[in-house]
Amino acid sequence: MRLLKQSWQLLLLKLTVVLGSLWMLFLLSHTKTGRDASYILRYSWLEYTDADGGREKVCNCSAILQGEREALEQAKLLTITKDFHKNVQIPDEYYINATQDCRKFKLSRKYLTLPLSQEEEDFPLAYSIVVHHKVQNFERLLRAIYAPQNIYCIHVDKKSETSVFSAIKAITSCFPNVFMASQTVSVVYSAWSRVQADLNCMADLYNVSKKWKYFINLCGQDFPLKTNLEIVRALRSLKGGNSLESEKLPGEKKWRISNVHQIVDGKIQQTGKAKEPPPFNLPILSGNAYIVVNRGYIRSVLEDNRVLALIEWAKDTYSPDEFLWATIQRIPGVPGSTWPNPKYDMTDINAIARLVKWQWHEGPQGSLEAVYPKCQGNHVRAICVYGAGDLQWMLEQHHLIANKFDTDTDAIVVYCLEKYLRQKALAEIH
Predict the structure, then answer these.
(1) Based on CB atoms within 10 Å of each CB, which residue in 74, 104, 223, 242 is the most buried?
(2) Where on the phi/psi map is residue 286: left (φ > 0), alpha (ψ -120 to 50), or beta?
(3) 371 and 317 share one domain
């Protein structure tokens, strides 16, 4: 009886090997290389297909990416249709319910649960994401930048609705490398609290992991323009440097740092008091809230006495996020910094941190005065909320991230961009 059982086990093992070999031969005969067969077995299910989209799938993303007029007109028509808007929205409750089964959620949303290359695995990144609403935007952003070797800190504004907090907390609970900020603040536009949200995540990321190489901060309405591999290669090319806007502070903005400000009824206001000069006679530079910096820069933010003094001094200024990081970048000795001489000034166009279309810099194609072509979506506080017609131009730029996107006003631009990036990421597999 024992011999019969062993014979059956041996036969079953041989049958498994034969069937496996036949399956691999079939794959090899239907693909060009062994790598393609391996790809079919491991990665093809991660591709975004029309079945993964909602009403957006009626659009021809390939034609949109190539700037074809008919496809762009169809996309624009859909974005102003009420039924289309209603059908592409994903309520917060969906995420709360879907994440009850994390494995199913990650499978259905096609998250990348393994590094796509050794190069990426060896170069982990740290992300801070500040969110206050629009969970759908946030989740699609997270999915687009997610890789298991990276680490992500999520700061949800204390003022956010309960459903927003619950949905984001539920999403983060499904990933070991995604976590909520240990301390949160109520963010006031143009006030210190916006910086504090990032500082809280910087400290958490720095303390939780020693492996990551670069820090990138985001908001919930950002979206990447590059795959993780492209981002890694762009950061490697910096050779330890940082990339962020840092240039001379315009005269019309000097009131922001020369007057004491305070929060009154949830809004920032001047007090009429003059501020003392900055510590160590540091030259204040102009920049923006979003940066691409190495781990050493973050260490300086958390530990360098000069930076800590600057942080204290900046707490009662107006819009400190638009000068603090830029100023730290020009402090001698900060890792990856550049000298404060104007020769080293860097604009947002030259930095790779963030692509933003400001309304006053837009203009007709071919205009020598225009920095970029006109926004094809709409404007919020003079910033372009991208439309599908901006996609072709965006993907020609060298920036890693773009701002702003809003699925409430144009879900097609996000759908086509995430589909394009996933196809490109999978095509990069060696």
Answers:
(1) 242
(2) beta
(3) no
Taking the C-alpha atoms of residue 36 and residue 39, their distance in angstroms, rounded to an integer, is 5
Express each pLDDT in 359-416 by its tens digit. 999 999 889 999 999 999 999 999 999 999 999 999 999 999 999 999 999 999 999 9
Alpha helices in 46-117 (DSSP H): 61-65, 69-79, 82-88, 92-98, 102-108
Q: Which of 70, 322, 362, 428 is catalytic?
A: 322
56 classed as catalytic = no
Confidence of residue 56 (pLDDT cuts 50, 70, 90): confident
CA distance 99 to 78: 30
The number of distinct structural domains making up the chain is 2
Surface-to-core class of residue 162, CB atoms within 10 Å of its CB (0-12 exposed, 13-18 middle, 19+ buried) = exposed
Query: How far does Cα 35 stand from its chain's mean position?
Result: 30
Cβ-proximal residues to 18 (8 Å cutoff; 6+ apart), any chain: none
Residue 15: how many CB atoms within 10 A of its CB? 10
Determine, yes or no, domain membership for 389. yes
Domain boundary among 299, 319, 344: 344
Decide if 279 is inside a domain: yes
Pairing, β 222-224 against β 285-286 = unpaired
The last residue of one of the domains, among 293, 309, 344, is: 344
Q: Which two tokens stand for residue 408?
A: 């409430």
- Same domain? For 282 and 337 the reply is yes
Residue 233 in any domain: the answer is no
* Structural domain includes residue 16: no
- Give residue-wise pLDDT tens across range 58-86: 899 999 999 999 999 999 999 988 888 78
